[in-house]
Predict the 3D structure of the following.
Amino acid sequence: MPDKLDAKKLEAFKKALQQIKSQINGDIRSMANESEGDQADKGDLSGHAMHMADVATDMYDREFNLTLASNDREILQKVEAALARIEKGTFGFCLKSGKRIPDQRLKALPYAEYCLEVQEEMDRKGER
């Protein structure tokens, strides 16, 4: 097996992952609070029906926020998995090839699961 990351680097990646986790959790809470606030504002006391364009805009906004939340949850799962790999001592290694993932890639994407070669191959084949 290739060289493992030293303890100092592992701690830096762990801290980065925890920051990402905290930020995503905050974003998800914020979107949930906005959604609840939007629902409370929907009570139209004037007795007038909402205009179709307003309804469409609201639907688009809700769908957009759901997509963002879904993406955040997916990244959150990858962050959790990366933190688990740190604990197991397997962080920094490609899940498919077993090769060491370069530090530059981990700095850019600390929850990277695959080395660049494997990721590019998976992208070409349409794998996730």
Remarks:
- The chain has one domain: 7-43+51-125.
